[in-house]
Amino acid sequence: MPTHTFILNGQQVSVDAEDTVRLLWVLRDLLGVTGPKYGCALDVCKACTCHINGKAFNPCSVPVSDIKPTDEITTIEGLPATVGTALHPMQRAWLDHDVAQCGYCQPGQIMAAVAKVRQARAAGHEITDADIDELRNICRCGTYSRIREAIKAGAQQM
Amino acid sequence: MAEHRRSPQVTAVPGHRGLGRRRFLGYLVAAPTLAVAVVATDPPRADAAIPTLPEPEELFDLGDMQNLAAAPTSGLITVEMRQDGTAFFAVPRAEVGQGMTTAVAMMVSEELDLPLDKVTVGLADARPELLMNQLTGGSNSMRSMYVPVRTAAAIARQRLVETAAARWGVPAAELTTRDGAVLGPGGRTAGYGSLAAAAASASTVAVAASLKDPAGFTVLGTPHNRIDALDIVTGRKQFAMDMSVPGAKPTMVARPPTINGTVVAVHNLAAVQAMPGITDVVAIDHGVAIRGDTFGQCIDAIQAVDVTWGPGTVDGESDDTVEAKLRAAALPMTVPPLLVNTVDAEFTFAFASNSPLEPDCAIADVRADRAEIWASLKVPIVAQEAIAAQLGLPVSAVTVHVVQGGGSFGRHLFHDAAAEAAEISRKMGKPVKLSWSRTDNFRQGRTHPMCVSRVRANYALGNVISYEQRHTGVQTDFGHGLGEMITATAAHLPVAGNLGFAETIFELTQSSPYNFGVTTQLLNEIPLRFNTGSMRNIYSPNVVCAQELVVDQLAARMHKDPVAFRRSFLKDRRVLAVLDRAAQAGEWGAAMPAGTAQGIAVHSEYQAAIAVLVEIDCRPQTVNRPISDGVTGPRVTKALIVVDPGFAINPTGLEAQMIGGLEDGIALALTSSLHMKAGIPLEGSWDDYFYTRQWNVPTDVRVIIMPSTGDSPSGAGELGVAPSLAAVACAYARATGSLPTRFPINHGTLGFTPLPLEPSTPQSPTDGLDDTF
């Protein structure tokens, strides 16, 4: 069985897995990193959203063999360390607005929100409602309104 | 079938139910540290008589029935004080996002004078002795737990004070409590943790304590964030599939192409078992179970397994055949139409999915002589007893752990995944971590059944003189009963059976809030064998939507404004008050551009009152705005919810439930449904089942909580759905100038390409790095 090496939340990891196994299952079932959730494995619900080299992606739809040894994968567990604080400002905003209900989608929501704010800034503007309209993450509890408030508040602290 | 006529002149019982300074009973329980137990039920309301015949929902509703049903049980629930100064309480309810654990922690914190972060709330395992006291449903948890939990905490506080008084040799009356410590004369202080062992009782004795006067509350009634919020935002909150149970490997099931289909033959079992990472493959009742090192490899095996399937239970049924059967089964109206002065309307509501985001899942470890189950279960006692029967084990040999759920919306009233995990674990002889796939959840999971609601209203001389509603649906499965096997079994009995149970639930939850003369609302259900169950708010979203659309029609016929019309006919002053507040705060009647409109609806249930006012944009540039792989359609741009919850235990959590109900209502009105075709839904992913997404969310959402109208909380978890659906429907009708009669309004157009029916779970994409952002 092939061995795959990459950087996970700042640490070099090696894991034995068949090439085609999607990264989500490598994270969850083989490495025990359970922050990214399984909601569909179809790249639709976005509950598993993580970052690869700082950009949002969905590991349910990436074979582990597509991950290079130099790729930096960040899950919700590693998000605070990317800014060197106990919590990322977006996580704090989520707490301030008491966004979560069941919480199942929220790690993915937060990871997507951080990337969306960065994407807006790279395009030269602060995040807007129109940008947030582009987020595809499902929240079946319907916390969308508080997500909107939290993204805007979190962006101000990023 | 009994027909229950309602007097049109019934007036609602006022919401005030003062507890005064009555003393409540509990028990000091023999334990190493202080432990206080109470009977896990709210005393029956003095103003709620046991009904001999079905009575109006205003007087006696589903929650009251659950409370009364719970009264005779002997099971106790216990608050424990630990030596580290924290209090622990294992609540016999499910937490699925509704905020129950936070509210219960607040109750303990309030009566114990202990900071909220020192209260730990766990979920109790299935406890058969609690009988009906371990059901999470009917928005009943706050109503049923409010007095018992506070009583236990108040007795614990009283015992801690007495213990400190004895230690210090001073009268208990001179002591006070604050922030988890007893304070005495001369600046003496003793933390609760230091008293916990001394306060323990050597035997179990009955004691009584008074509850705090609500006027003195510092925790209850004030906004608090969820107690699990930090765990959630850091990814630490554990759901069933995040748990590590030794040997429990990922397991999925290849399923038939029609609902409840069966396995005739598996042609390549050995080949599938030889696939990379696969450990076990076995045929089960409704599929082929596959266990492996990763869920991904289980999905690979589902692509490969070759099965001949037997028929399912509804193979010949599609949307149109079901609708025709429902129409034929509708109960007749009893009041003849009054020629021109009649509104006759019929509304069809498509099948809808109650699937949460977390797919159905469970861990099972079944051995020869015992079994252990981990799952999010709202009726764990029935799960325990049914799984014991399924496995041929005594109930006491089956341990059922209730774990945190990633949403429910009715789905976790049943234990389908837990039963299937037990079946698989037994057949494989190994522990399994079973997850249904997303596609399984939509296609084989339970649904809110299609229903047709007919309304006839007659009016004359400025009055509505009759209002009749005939609601006909595919049967809603109430096989979970009221928490234990007696009522669960009753729902399956051939005599009264599920329809009798369903009619009882309908009677206890539905009532017209209007003085419309002769009023009847009747249910009939047809016994097609779809997998159904309650979805958040059960019958109310459909019944209230039909009702409120007809109310707007009546208002138009009688040349009245919708709000003014409702004001003229509403029975209940609390409903009137929320309507007035919504109309005022939401600027009802403001000028709106053509193609946009306001809509308003009211509702009363769970001893609460609620009004929802929305604004909708149905202009072509909005309806046709482009979104890839998703539907747009009309957009609700603004929403205002005004709620009178009696007493709001946690305004932050209450507001969250209202917003969630709103998003459900928007979805049910505009976008989300299942298309049933030849025995199975076409929907297989969240890009097919159009639950509200960010691009359909109103950017302006406001919740107003009315000042307390009583000392007791009402139910809130489901309350917002019905009036939100109704308000959006009414707004749509006003914006487009035509009465919508089929919901969701986009159901007639299939907005996606269905995933194949076989393999039952599609392979995951591989191009996830193409759309990073």
Write down the overall mean pLDDT of chain B.
Answer: 90
| Radius of gyration of chain B, taken over Cα atoms and rounded to an integer in Å | 27 Å
Structural class of chain A: alpha+beta
Q: Beta-strand level of the residues of chain A, as a percent range?
A: 5-15%
Give the overall silhouette of chain B: globular
Radius of gyration of chain A: 15 Å
**Distance between the ends of chain A:** 42 Å
**Ends apart, CA distance between termini of chain B:** 59 Å
Written as H for each helix and E for each strand, in order along the chain, the element string of chain A is EEHEEEHHHH
Q: How many beta-strand segments of chain A?
A: 5
Describe the global form of chain A: globular
Defining key terms:
heterodimer, A: alpha+beta, 5 strands, globular, B: 773 residues, 6-stranded mixed sheet, 31 strands, disordered N terminus
Task: Give a structural overview.
- The complex is a heterodimer of chains A (158) and B (773).
- Helix content of chain A is 33%, strand content 13%.
- By secondary structure, chain A is of the alpha+beta class.
- Chain A is globular, with a radius of gyration of 15 Å.
- The termini of chain A are far apart.
- The model of chain A has no long low-confidence stretch (mean pLDDT 98).
- Chain B is built from 19 helices and 31 strands.
- In chain B, the strands form 8 sheets. Chain B has a 7-stranded mixed β-sheet with strand order 12-13-10-20-17-18-19, sandwiched between helices.
- In chain B, helix 2 links the parallel strand 4 and strand 5.
- In chain B, helix 2 (100-112) runs parallel beside helix 3, helix 14 (540-557) packs parallel to helix 19 and helix 18 packs across helix 19.
- The model of chain B is unreliable at 1-20, 43-56 and 68-74 (pLDDT under 50).
- The chains are: A alpha+beta (158), B alpha+beta (773).
- The interface between A and B is large, with 76 and 76 residues.
